[in-house]
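INFO worker-7 received task bundle
INFO bundle size: 2
INFO processing item 0
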Amino acid sequence: MTHSIAGSSTTHNATAASASTALAGRVLLSAIFILSGLSKVSAPAGMIGYIESVGLPFPALALTLAILIELVGGIALVLGYRTRLVAAGLALFSVVTALAFHHQLGDQNQFIHFFKNLAMAGGLLQVVAFGGGRFSLDARRG
């Protein structure tokens, strides 16, 4: 069986669509981390109080680490830099924060946030499995 020029074009279009979809997915997944990190930077006192309220030690240090993870991880994910490693770290962060902050599943709001975090972790694990795609810094390094 031979492939026609139209077949090659279709394959190229499918590859470009796949690469664009991977980029869009990374941008959408990272948005919540970047926005959350920025909100923590703009109002740290409230977040420190929230961290204290769930009984975590060293709330100022925990806040600093969360800001770094969210901002650096979110930006790295958008850029596709060390995409699989960053996505794995953000997935772990999402599960840990679900367990630490949203474990009161009898509260409807906490229930939704808990499973939102797990869904984010699931999406990030897809990035771990399939990588950042052609439109990523990782693809340029390869």
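INFO item 0 finished
INFO processing item 1
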Amino acid sequence: MPPLQMVRAFEAAGRMGSMRKAADDLGVSHSVVSRHVRNLEFWMAVKLVTSSPRGLRLTREGEIFHAAVSTAFELIATTTEELRPPSHRRSLRLWCMPGLATRWLGPRLPQIQQMLGETEIVLRAIDRLPDFSVGEAEVMVGYGKPQDMPMGASELVSPRMFPVVSRDWLAATGPVERVDELARAPLIHEENRQQWADWFRAAGVHHDALRGPRLWDASLGFEAALAGQGVALATRLIAGDEMARGRLVELFDTDIRLGAYFFIAAPSRRKDRAIRKLHDWLLDELTRSEAAAASSGS
């Protein structure tokens, strides 16, 4: 059997789709993860991963081995949870995408707490999947394209995404008359420029190199837009309150949906009554919020 630290690094790399994200996930350096994966390949005498423009990819052998080790880690987590005393199951650690956690979920925590009774919610705003095999969290509300959602995830809502700017920015720069003019504006990006590129593609706009700062997540981008630093992509779930106050303005009338929020629970807790209730509540409330935003028309 190969050394466990090699297997853990490989499992994280395959799950996260990148050595860097796997390093963040495990709390070690990028070079440590890369070394463990290379050593595992040497130990097994087979190629497990390859590099691509979109990040790390598993080979056929890598996919087979990753499925096996993922199942093994889930089995360990499930057995551990079953053996723990009931007194240790009173909290529910919920990870959520930062923008949604701060702008939509946070203000609703008292409702969730009341619904769940004695189960205490512990909310963390973060944009990576927890490692359920070591008990980092019980639930994650993530965001992604349907084809990229992790195994076991269920879709909650696919919100409309649109460009927003502050009124101060509009006053200083003047109105943006056409969608294709946005490509020349200072755009606020997340970790990379892919989301804006996908949005322009969906809008039928061809563009050259996109400008603007790259920030870590949607929450930072939202704050930058509020500060008048440029144009950000947002949804009504996140930007609705600031739009109602007049601090942010939607540019153009578009109906573009780039992905969906999803719900995934630790395999050992998927039948837990509190988690099922949380899933149903999130599905109902997010659907209602998005429908209300669509009907408001502004």
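INFO item 1 finished
INFO post-check item 1: Strands lie at 49-52, 55-58, 91-96, 120-125, 139-144, 154-157, 162-166, 232-234, 248-250, 260-265.
INFO post-check item 1: The first helix runs from residue 4 to 16.
INFO worker-7 idle
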